[in-house]
From TrEMBL:
Signal peptide: none annotated. It comes from Paenibacillus xanthanilyticus. It is found in: Cytoplasm. This is Response regulator. Residues 3-120 form the Response regulatory domain.
Amino acid sequence: MLQLLLVDDERSVVETLAETIPWAECGIGAVHEALSGAMALEVLENNAIDVVMTDIRMPGMSGIELITQIQQRWPHIRTILLSGYADFEYAKQAIAQQTFDYLLKPVSDEDLIDSVTRVVGQIKAKWEEAASVQKALYALNENLPLLRSTMLSELLAGKAYAAPALADKLQLLDLPYSVQDEFNLLLVRMEERFADLSAREQALMEYAICNIVSEVMQDDFHIWPTRDAHDYIVILVKRKATASGGGPSDAASSRPLVERHAAQIQTNVHNYLKGAISILVGGRGVFPDQVRDIYDQAVRSMRQKMGHVQGLFVMMPQNAEPANTAVNAVWSLYEPPTLMHLLEAGRFDDVESKIRRIFDELLRADDADVPERLIEAYHVLAGAFAYIIRKNGKQLRAVLPDEAYRHFQSPAYSTAAQLHEWALRTLHRIRDDAEQELLDNHSTIVRSVRSFVDRQLAYDVSLPAIAGHVHLHPVYLSKVYKTETGEALTEYVYRLRMEKAAFYLRTTASKVFEIAELVGYNNTAYFIRVFKKYYDVTPQEYRDSLHQPQG
């Protein structure tokens, strides 16, 4: 939904338009108000306005001067001029400033709605064009290295793709890999002076190293680099088709060539970048199933064989196996997105699905109830649960029932099934607490809004003023209020004004213009107009009807 700014020096005009026009039906999600050109510029500075509807004749800055500044500073904003002067000179100036429309006061609701609907359609058409395939492909090509790096990072972390999705993404990113392709892996650690560089300088050096890798290997291999969480440069390499035109060589026969190239890379980095790197030539594997395993073996070898010694060149066995398959980790615990990330995002359904996957993996294993595996699962789950509760500013005891809390003090489980049941119960309690807190927060917002509107009804109760009072963005406030009450905030303000006006007409002898001011209308004619629109009678007719004898 788009955002619209109404500008007029008469408060009653902008508030009437804000309250009585069905903006949502026109495609407008939030309506801002300004009583002068200077106020309008301030609103424009602080909000993503799409459409400005302004009066022409205002004290100080005129509407023409305002839209001139808008065109200079925010050329994407569409403008509509309102004027009570049927003067062609104004129309010519409006056209010169590329104003979308020019409406004469008093403008009918139908004409105004038609104009806004058309300008919203024009804006949406513009954004649809901006999101065209050609521009999307251009953006894709601009960001291709980053997107490729991100995908490899996901594979290293164990992300699984369905076969069709994997094929589509590889094709989209122009990566020459297919299921069951063989690959080798290089692990590069930047050392000596590289380690002392700033983050920006390290990124530039990483780029330079990858360029050297490409220059050395590009004739024989497809190169796919990324940077991992340990600040290693990880490079997947796949042999290109042989010079004779046959199929690609397998990874085993490519290994000696990979090793020679890796040694050359190390030398070139030393000679041309004046720094040291250690390189580990990892084992070979089958894409994509063994990417994570080969990578994990390489990282473990880097840690165990290289340690803090610098400038090393290490080659792993071609068919390296995990050191002890009997104590493999429960990988689902660590696959992205992690439990902590999902909990932080409030994606509770996804958290529950992940927990079920964790225990599916655990229960499928022959050693599902081995204490070490249960301890591993418990501590990851308990750590994630405790983290999100504490990050939300609460204590575990305040959120969890006694039975669940006791598990944190003294874990009591003997089987994976028992631990699974505890994990789901704890998750459901955290989710219920979060949902209740959200409801409480929204209820507090609604009460605060209504209290403010009731106190300020004779003054400024525009959407920006209310949003400023509760310290929320106007668009978000509108959504919260509509969700909680089923009524748009502007509709509530309008209804309250009319109901209070009727109350004063029934219970006081105040004149119509005095009642208009009491409910926030400085222009009596506008007040009469909106009152009649709401009750089908004028204020005086409404009052007179109260004294007519009942037949």
